[in-house]
Design a protein that fits this description.
Elements lengths: L27 H45 L2 H46 L7 H5 L31 H18 L2 H12 L20 E16 L10 E4 L6 E2 L4 E5 L2 H27 L3 H70 L4 H64 L4 H26 L2 E3 L4 E6 L14 E16 L11 E6 L2 E12 L4 E2 L14 E9 L1 H6 L7 E6 L4
Antiparallel strand pairs: 1-7, 1-12, 2-4, 3-6, 4-5, 6-7, 7-11, 8-9, 8-12, 9-11, 10-11
Helix pairs in contact: 1-2, 1-4, 2-4, 6-9, 7-8
Subcellular location: Cell envelope
InterPro entries: ABC_heterocyst_DevB, UPF0194_transport
Keywords: Coiled coil
């Protein structure tokens, strides 16, 4: 049984690979289709290679321009230009390595295409082409030809070549896939791993030999110890503004140090002063109760009591006189109106008699119609005056009676009010003359209540200060003096940059090879030297990938586990100002 070893690593030799001779019974049409497909794949690979060669040329021109700028730049711009130059050189080197790999694989594709052409032309298989290209250093493991179904130890029938295409076709497809779609993140991980003399974590085991643990590559980001926290106003105080901002970006703070003062500070300070005043009043009241009443106070209270009684009698007499006046006015107006009505009724009787007489004369022709109408009109006028006078009499009676009733009600209210005042003054007089234990207890309770109000006002005033919850450094300011505090962003971002960590997102398939205490090496654009750290904590749940590289075909929905890596002290200081910087991580498992 023949065996073919397939590996997707870049450091295994091709020497020894001997493609099996294909049978002459393969259909020419299908062979032509296969050759056409390989040709298309090869053209696509060449087109991609050409585009990336142009991109490499652009990088070289950009690097030359940056080097020229660096020679002429002032000191203030040197650091920025140097960092940009390092980043461009790193990208150029990575691209150059990728191009080298792709050229080698394209060359290998051309070798296979030549073999298929010979088959199509019925030419003999030429293994020398493979031997001539054995320096391509590529080995393809993984496929093993099955034993023929009718093979036997007692027969010497040669093995049929029907399965050989099942080996060759996947090999070519694998080559094309590696050349065209090799993710950039995998290349970066392999380059980092090769610098440590380690195999990439994604390389499968190639044979039955005892496997060795591979380095784990992952993307991650820098963050301070305990992560970055947002410091904001208390949750129950919405709608506040920052009155004074007491820090600036980069300041180092101690736990409890003030960061900002909110605009409710003046109001809460006034509330505290008022609460302190109430304490003093309650203390004076208690002292007064304990001292007892003075003789002058008792005399004054007695005088007040007697004055209330005299005031009651005076008010009652005044109200009664008002009622008598109203009743007298009612009687006089009523009598005058009745007399007026009686006079008008007498005039009405005379006018009625005259009207009847003239009506009779008019009927008999003794007077004219005009004379009759003139006399009868006076009768009607007098009747209207009588009706009006009677209505006025009713209105006068009703109005005066209402006034009298109102005066009686006022009198009754006055009596009740003054009596209540007299009773209160009497009780006060009696209380003043003695000190009761109940009064002392009430005064003490009032004092305790005032002191509690002071404690509450002090606690409320503390909420007007925004303080640092722990030691750390101000990384970013979101809310400045005069601005409304945002519930989403808070006022500042704070982090303990004295100790930096890397949060690496390790694929769920690699997490079993990561242990606490393993060493790790971290690289990043903008950081010229490698960073070193130790695995400090491994996450307990699997989530979606948050850190995305530059590879457009990378799986954005990959499932990962967060691994915390503690940087050593020296490297922590180097990157203390680079929170959230994306990094490349290599974790070296122990054997």
């Amino acid at each position: 049984m023949e065996r073919f070893i397939i590996e997707t690593t870049y450091e295994q030799p091709l020497s020894g690979l001997n493609l099996p001779t294909l049978g002459n019974n393969w259909p020419s049409v299908e062979l032509e289709q296969l050759l056409t497909h390989l040709k298309q794949e090869l053209e696509q690979g060449r087109q991609l290679l050409s585009e990336q060669e142009e991109e490499l040329t652009e990088y070289e021109l950009t690097i030359a321009e940056l080097e020229e700028k660096l020679r002429k730049a002032p000191d203030s711009e040197l650091l920025t230009l140097e960092m940009e130059l390092v980043k461009k050189r790193q990208k150029k080197e990575k691209l150059a390595e990728r191009l080298t790999l792709k050229r080698r694989y394209l060359q290998m594709q051309e070798v296979f295409m030549e073999q298929y052409r010979e088959l199509l032309d019925n030419k003999p298989f030429n293994p020398e082409l493979i031997d001539q290209n054995s320096n391509l250093d590529v080995k393809f493991p993984g496929f093993e030809a099955p034993e023929p179904l009718n093979s036997s130890a007692h027969t010497k029938t040669p093995k049929k070549p029907w399965w050989r295409w099942t080996v060759i076709i996947p090999i070519v497809g694998l080559l094309v896939g590696v050349v065209v779609k090799l993710p950039q993140s995998q290349l970066i991980s392999q380059q980092l791993a090769s610098s440590l003399a380690l195999s990439p974590s994604s390389s499968p085991v190639a044979s039955n030999a005892k496997p060795t643990l591979k380095a784990v590559a992952a993307l991650g980001y820098l963050e301070p110890k305990g992560e970055v926290i947002q410091v904001s106003a208390p949750a129950m105080m919405d709608g506040l503004r920052v009155d004074k901002l007491l820090v600036k970006e980069g300041d180092s703070l101690k736990a409890g140090q003030k960061i900002a003062i909110l605009d409710n500070y003046d109001r809460l300070s006034a509330a505290l002063r008022q609460a302190n005043s109430q304490v003093k009043i309650a203390q004076a009241r208690l002292a007064q109760v304990l001292a007892g009443a003075k003789s002058g106070e008792i005399t004054a209270q007695k005088s007040k009591f007697e004055g209330s009684q005299a005031e009651l009698e005076g008010q009652i007499n005044t109200q009664k006189a008002t009622i008598a006046d109203l009743e007298a006015q009612l009687q006089g107006e009523k009598s005058a109106q009745i007399a007026t009505i009686q006079g008008l009724k007498a005039q009405l009787d005379n006018a009625t008699s005259d009207c009847q007489r003239y009506e009779f004369l008019y009927q008999s022709g003794g007077v004219s119609q005009q004379s009759r109408d003139s006399v009868c009109l006076k009768q009607k006028t007098t009747l209207e005056q009588v009706n009006e006078a009677q209505a006025n009499l009713k209105r006068i009676i009703t109005s005066r009676q209402e006034q009298i009733q109102q005066a009686h009600a006022n009198l009754q209210r006055t009596i009740e009010t003054v009596k209540s005042q007299i009773n209160a003054d009497k009780a006060t007089l009696q209380a003043t003359a003695q000190v009761r234990p109940e009064d002392i207890e009430v005064a003490k309770a009032e004092l305790e209540s005032a002191k509690t109000a002071v404690d509450k006002a002090k606690a409320d005033l503390k909420l007007a200060y925004v303080t640092s919850p722990k030691d750390g450094q101000i990384l970013k300011i979101h809310t400045w003096a005069g601005e409304m505090v945002s519930r989403d962003q808070g006022i500042v971002e704070l982090g303990q940059t004295s100790q930096m960590y890397v949060t690496a997102e390790v694929y769920e398939t690699d997490i079993t090879r990561v242990k606490v205490g393993q060493p790790a090496i971290i690289t990043a654009n903008g950081v010229t030297k490698q960073l070193k750290g130790t695995v400090d904590k491994i996450g307990l749940q699997i989530g979606r990938k948050n850190v995305l590289g530059t590879d457009p075909v990378a799986d954005a929905d990959a499932r990962v586990v967060e691994v915390k890596i503690r940087l050593n002290a020296q490297d922590s200081q180097r990157v203390a100002h680079l929170t959230n910087l994306q990094v490349n991580v290599i974790i070296n498992p122990s054997n």
